[in-house]
Amino acid sequence: MNNLPAITGWHWLKQGAALFRKQPAALTTLLFANILISIGISAVPLLGPLIVSVLIPSFSMAFMQACLMIENGERVTPGVLLTGFRKPAFGALCKIGLVYLGIGILQLVLVRLLIDPDAMQEMARQSREGGQPQVSGSFMLSIFAIVMLNMAGMVAMCFAGPLTYWQKMPPAKATFYSFFAVLRSARVFLVMLMAWFAIFFAITLVLSLVLGGDNLVRVLIMWLIFLFVLLLQCAMYVGYRQIFGKPDGGGGGGGGVSLAK
């Protein structure tokens, strides 16, 4: 885990975009399939949302494997959806998923501790009455802190699943290596996330200024969100590849994507 310059985060984003451009339809189909499966599982009373949290690493491995296949010049097929659900990796990935579940529970606890329920109810009442909800500075600061902590936890875990699946690391060891790899490359991830958000915000702003605030803009922004989620997934694969090396598996055919700078 060598020290990387901060600009590497921008390179990850560009190289992730190169992967996405190679097979955008396949990756988009993969994303929607994951969303539909997650919605179906979440519909199970009580346990559904908990199960989805535990399965996050298994879902994420489908995108990681798809990126590897694209880099090797292979076609991404629907079977890649099952990547993280095959034995013996599935059990280990579920153990990592318990950490994701813990992050989610911690977020709920922070919401209860930092957010005043009366303030939430008052904002909901103002919104129902058609008024502009009055948001205090402390409320916004609390929301921002919770979102940032949740994002930091999720990013810190981003390599745990691939390390377990590709390098056969035990879940605890994979979590340890993922956390410290992200911590050591914190400025790289910061640049990547800032660039990712800045591009998304700029495109959204241009769409709003050019097309106004009608339903078409809302639909386009929703599609944009999906595309940028995929872009971030591809950039995470590039980051894994640079920090831990290219995973084994999958014979490369012609037409692969070069990730060299």
From TrEMBL:
Domain of life: Bacteria
Transmembrane parts of this sequence: 24-44, 90-115, 135-166, 187-210, 216-238
Protein name: Uncharacterized protein
Keyword Transmembrane helix (UniProt): yes
Organism classification: Bacteria, Pseudomonadati, Pseudomonadota, Betaproteobacteria, Burkholderiales
Keywords assigned by UniProt, alphabetized: Membrane, Transmembrane, Transmembrane helix
Keyword hit for Transmembrane helix: yes
InterPro entries per record: BPSS1780-like
